[in-house]
Predict the structure.
Amino acid sequence: MSYATEKLREEKVFKDPVHRYVHVRDRVIWDLIGTKEFQRLRRIKQLGTTYLTFHGAEHSRFAHSLGVYEIVHRIVDDVFKGRTGWDESDRLLSLCAALLHDLGHGPFSHAFEKVFQLDHEQFTQAIILGDTEVNQVLSMVDKDFPTKVAEVIAKTSDKKLVVSLISSQIDADRMDYLLRDAYYTGVSYGHFDIERIMRVMRPTEEQVVFKKSGMHAVEDYIMSRYQMYWQVYFHPVSRSAEVILTKILQRAKVLYENSYEFKHEPTHFLSFFQGKPTLEDYLKLDEAVVLYYFQVWQEEGDAILKDLCYRFLNRHLFKYIEFDPASQYKMFMELIPLFKKAGIDPDYYLVLDSSSDLPYDFYRPGEEGERLPIQLIMPNNDFRELSRESEIVEAISGKRRTDHKLYYPADLLRDESTNQATKRQIKQLLGVAHKY
Amino acid sequence: MSYATEKLREEKVFKDPVHRYVHVRDRVIWDLIGTKEFQRLRRIKQLGTTYLTFHGAEHSRFAHSLGVYEIVHRIVDDVFKGRTGWDESDRLLSLCAALLHDLGHGPFSHAFEKVFQLDHEQFTQAIILGDTEVNQVLSMVDKDFPTKVAEVIAKTSDKKLVVSLISSQIDADRMDYLLRDAYYTGVSYGHFDIERIMRVMRPTEEQVVFKKSGMHAVEDYIMSRYQMYWQVYFHPVSRSAEVILTKILQRAKVLYENSYEFKHEPTHFLSFFQGKPTLEDYLKLDEAVVLYYFQVWQEEGDAILKDLCYRFLNRHLFKYIEFDPASQYKMFMELIPLFKKAGIDPDYYLVLDSSSDLPYDFYRPGEEGERLPIQLIMPNNDFRELSRESEIVEAISGKRRTDHKLYYPADLLRDESTNQATKRQIKQLLGVAHKY
Amino acid sequence: MSYATEKLREEKVFKDPVHRYVHVRDRVIWDLIGTKEFQRLRRIKQLGTTYLTFHGAEHSRFAHSLGVYEIVHRIVDDVFKGRTGWDESDRLLSLCAALLHDLGHGPFSHAFEKVFQLDHEQFTQAIILGDTEVNQVLSMVDKDFPTKVAEVIAKTSDKKLVVSLISSQIDADRMDYLLRDAYYTGVSYGHFDIERIMRVMRPTEEQVVFKKSGMHAVEDYIMSRYQMYWQVYFHPVSRSAEVILTKILQRAKVLYENSYEFKHEPTHFLSFFQGKPTLEDYLKLDEAVVLYYFQVWQEEGDAILKDLCYRFLNRHLFKYIEFDPASQYKMFMELIPLFKKAGIDPDYYLVLDSSSDLPYDFYRPGEEGERLPIQLIMPNNDFRELSRESEIVEAISGKRRTDHKLYYPADLLRDESTNQATKRQIKQLLGVAHKY
Amino acid sequence: MSYATEKLREEKVFKDPVHRYVHVRDRVIWDLIGTKEFQRLRRIKQLGTTYLTFHGAEHSRFAHSLGVYEIVHRIVDDVFKGRTGWDESDRLLSLCAALLHDLGHGPFSHAFEKVFQLDHEQFTQAIILGDTEVNQVLSMVDKDFPTKVAEVIAKTSDKKLVVSLISSQIDADRMDYLLRDAYYTGVSYGHFDIERIMRVMRPTEEQVVFKKSGMHAVEDYIMSRYQMYWQVYFHPVSRSAEVILTKILQRAKVLYENSYEFKHEPTHFLSFFQGKPTLEDYLKLDEAVVLYYFQVWQEEGDAILKDLCYRFLNRHLFKYIEFDPASQYKMFMELIPLFKKAGIDPDYYLVLDSSSDLPYDFYRPGEEGERLPIQLIMPNNDFRELSRESEIVEAISGKRRTDHKLYYPADLLRDESTNQATKRQIKQLLGVAHKY
């Protein structure tokens, strides 16, 4: 028996609150889970700073990755197996790509990617193809296997069906995170009937398609996704924490660039500040390390770094107002000098933040950001794009919604012991004069 | 209006997966939650190393503390309010004690307490009574208030009813953690009808008692507790992680005592090694800091420290056999020199571990470890101790169950490239010769 | 103490799967539940024939009525109490109207109302105002109280706020049935966060309004409602059972009108056939009685009545095709003579059935079918109609969706032992020739 | 392809709240579900009169039978398939026996069996072996197949493994009803981890056994069973309804035997009164028919029959006191003449009722009521009886618990307009003098 088809003597199970159990029978999957690069995902929260808003959201990318694996496992072994359109030899490739799709995520990815101009997808590729335990395991299947897995995750693979299982408008990744994030935050949005959706999935050469009889379950998934985005992912308080986190990283980088003398040498950050972290550097940076630095930076001499770290760790967040870029940009420009005058650095304490989502998009061939639409198979075997069949999806299709907020430190403005007049002027402009 | 009775303008709610919402209306409670000592509980997992066995168990002591508060809040405001036996002036005391009861927990408490001879309960006292933000808030209620809260948590208060709400054989603490740990691990044990239990609670001078009509719900709670202990809390794999963690701390301490030169100065640990951490030192030590050190210690020169840290972070745990102290102690004594001979230090790699629990105890006045029994109020208003009324509780009452396991590194024994004969002898003694 | 304010010595609770517990403390409510007119609702299924499609949907109108009461109870006692805009003297009126709002429902209401031209709302009025146990209880509160309750249910009351609690586009009735029907059928649509919605409700003179911060929960409710309609209430198989039921009643009425001699005198139906059931007749007719007749009618001499009853009881339902009135009406007209030629009476065996729903409607003052829209209270205390604030609700607002199906007995057409040619012609027209 | 192995073109699914979906692929199973004898189970409640205590408990034996089928289906197709000890040729036999095991249940079985001395198990045999649609379907598999299925259900089959799947101390029947009854009543007892239990089941020639690693899930099942018995099945209020139901049937029988002239001829009951219902008579008697008669009997001339029917339909139940046969039998004997003197017939209005349960029994070979114990397979492949391994099961093993109650009509005693002195004497004896 080859390594690719080797089975464990006894199936291993992980108790999972979302899927009840995650089942592993393949030796390759078991070995991948045991690698240090995969175990590292235990130390990275799935939802970054969201736990500061929803205290239950402390689950890791490790759990999510197992969940995506389990969904794909059920699809290929319970639904696709034996059906026309499904090539059994793509099974292991699908399972590995599902398990490893988020491998390159670092701690608080969005903020890190923004400040240090990184791309977690490139690190996923690097881990799979580089000198790692994960690469060793995959290479034992076949010397080309790491490349194949990496291509599926990068969506450059010609195995379009497998790609669509992992990344499309309705894929195992999204289905797991919506259910999992709903479970851990405790919100009641985010539930949909995944069992029904899996049951109506059908393999085709180009992508996974869905039997018409399951359309309502798919609609429900899209509505859940819409609700989770606005209720959880773009929650203004989480975004406030994210803003502060970003500003900490930005400040630390600026200090480094200005040859600031850190009391505590930021060893783990140096290559990030320099803009060229190696894979090894990157893999060392988990959330524990980041939070460790934030703690010691509370004792740095730089007042801004110190204050921002204190805010983040002790959840003294910024407040916000709704912001309309069209009508209020002038006001924003006026605030900048006022902040300076009040002794509050606007580069770190006056932050515009925008969130934007497109809940579902139909097919716009050739257009930028083209997305594969969801296809239904009708009783007569024709295909039909979801938004043409579902009125509710049609109604929200292609409509991008954007939300702007302006964040500021209410506590500093409330304190009128210094710069009273300027602070009052600021509060007037922000429209919060009556509050503090 | 005094600070003690001040209400927030709008009730604040925390979305909580276990109780759906945690409601805060009291200014005191809101301010306590905002203190840095309380926020620090976000960085300490409720179940320590259990996440290495149940990957969902990543919830923090912050969430649990809010949950205990919410339960007491519902008991006093929805059930006790207006009843004979309940003194409304104990309300705020009860809420504060509930919220703060675990404040002194550090990261991975059990291992730290064992190796460094600490006591988290003493730190809870120290935080409440010392120079902290928590103390400042409590002192604003009344200058004696911190002491009163501390006494309830220490069980030295003469407010016996309030004490029994927080610590007894069926209290808000246990009820929250059983439900919460079941939710996050995903196990189906651990559920019981808390709403029913709260509804049948009645205040008396000595303790909370329970209407007879709710006896079955109480039975169910005791069975849940029993199951959670043996299925989750004493799970042999979690204990393996705990064993390794303990050995890491022990090794680091030994190295320090032997003036080992750490490549990376263990600043945060020094006062622990020296046996006298200050409150300030203690509060700085959260899980992020501990995991940060474990990561850098992977690069230390000491092979044992390095290996144990690698094992913990990458979940390369020890295996175990069931161990019967009566009949197998001799075998254990024989293994020690064999381990040495095989080049594996038995002080760190051959570990006996025992778990023990008493699911429910009736009243044994004067005996050591005396526990307040659960009292039922019968329809005729008599009190009756639970185990006299419930056959199922009677059956398990006072029966301590103990479980012993012997942990060892199977991977080192499997590798027969060195010390083959000795290792085979060890495996023979352990009864695992056929396995590797 | 007056009867209106009398409390039970101990609160009574009903265990309820949807709301966990239904709590009763008011003597009036307890007495109403004990009346025979209310207990009769135990013998009437909430979802009529739906149990033939979703076998779990066997719950009664009794359970639903308790649920609506409980929701209103929580709103007025936990949310409204003490708020501006809420008049505590409307409390009992609200509770009674909630409990009794469906009192006039008979078995399989829709079919009975259609065939016998009845109106369950008129019977609700008649029970509340007539010579009944319910009327006796209500009259003990005050001699005008029955009328007041009846007016709220009839929506003619000038207590607009109370009316809107029971009947509006988001009321206690709908919230209970969506949650309850989802629970009993087992579908995962239909869940929404009722606790959140209740919490953001605010009383105004004209109607209940909702704080803007709860908008997403309201959106979720509207989506749930949409899904339940199309997935459960308009499920084509349930409609098939409904079609057969209607045809049974129609046939029995026709037979009676044609002086057919029933083997088993249909005593309970006589006044219905004659078009003038008294209140007493109406109250006797529960589902047990109807199903009893259907069973004995299986032994009648009339072949159509006998066959339809057999079909209903043993779930031998009609099949259906999608039907487009615009393009297929001619086909339908051609089928009628062909059915006759094949010996299958088209009056009973060829049935067009349509379902139609308007998921949400904004305000169209003066237009027919005008519905009170859902109003949000914005942070600045302005009101704003939901569809102007929610893009997702705006998208489906005012859009009526209609679905037509043509039902026929596939088994009779499959049997080609007689009228082969005609039956083949019919199947050709129906487009199902290839199936049988 | 033979009928026994014929598959449906598309799998059929039933939405089920307990198992999410019930899946049917076998033509035989689908045809059995469509028979009129099986559809009849829709008109018989799983829990008889319990809906008068737990209003949610309105589910039918139809739903339960599908559930038992689904559990066995998952065990044999997901767990046993391909394992040593499992004979694939027993698959269809297992599925059919599971589906049909309760086929002979009539409405309110216990009361009917008691009064008319019937045995639903004999009717199950009669339906399977007699001239029925079920028999026709089973005979198409093989002419001996009906007998084989009947033998498994009667436990006389030599297929001991198959028998143990359907009837043992932990079988598919019990697992389904515990979960289902918990779901519909809404109680939180009754939940256990069925997925885990199924996963650790192993086939042996003699019976299903359980891997030791699943012991705690099995313990949890036994505790759930214990709780459900005392909390739901033996609930004193349900027993009150059962008492009244039994007395109705008894009264009607006595009247018939005394040639009472019924206003409404009790056609459906005649053969029951005569002690020899045919299979045809039996199958006609569903709950609708019984409730129909109870309604018309409310208008009979006999005061007792009329009153009891009124009580049952409108839930005017008897009250009860705890009764100790040893010390209170004399009191009971004194009550009888007092009831007569007060004009209340003690044969119908003074009723002793006992419930008794043995939560788990170890093996007592040769003893009466011998039950197959639950066997664990230890890691070394030895078998071990559950109560020897589980302390909690050992504690309750073999301990029968019995509960006696005395039921009486409190309302009649409360009314002191007649026989005041005697009624007061009765209330004195019952110990309820202070209440009314």
Chain D has 23 helices and nine strands. Chain D touches chain C through 40 residues (CB under 8 Å). Residues 236-257 of chain D form the longest helix (22 residues). The mean pLDDT of chain D is 94.
